[in-house]
Amino acid sequence: MNIYLIAMPESQLEHRDYDYYDSAVVVAPDEATARTWHPASVSMEAPIRFHDDHWWAPYRDGSGDYVYESRGWVWNIDDIEVHKLGVADPALEEGVIVASFHAG
């Protein structure tokens, strides 16, 4: 597992004014997987992941997933900037470690 910084591209930051994530640090096996993690996974305490052209979050009762309407992050995961920071400690699990959120 590796540690990655995922970030919203500068071109999209120009059009944001409040309530958005600009970056997060994630543990993932590779760059492609790092892109699939949503920074809100930290505050929601749930794994919000990208697949089938949407962000998905689990229902709290574990009965399935719902489309997570995220206006505060990137919709096209190909736009996410990814930078490898290093190798993760083996004790760390895959997921978001910390996220940067800009509130209202």
Note down, in words, how this protein is organized.
There is one protein chain. With 104 residues, the chain is mainly β. The chain has one domain. The chain has three helices and seven strands. It has a four-stranded antiparallel β-sheet. Strands 3-4-5 form a three-stranded antiparallel β-sheet, with no helix packed on it. The radius of gyration is 13 Å and the shape is globular. The mean pLDDT is 91.
Task: Quickly describe the structure.
The protein is mainly β. It is built from three helices and seven strands.
Q: What key attributes describe this structure?
A:
3 helices; globular; mainly beta; 104 residues; four-stranded antiparallel β-sheet; single chain
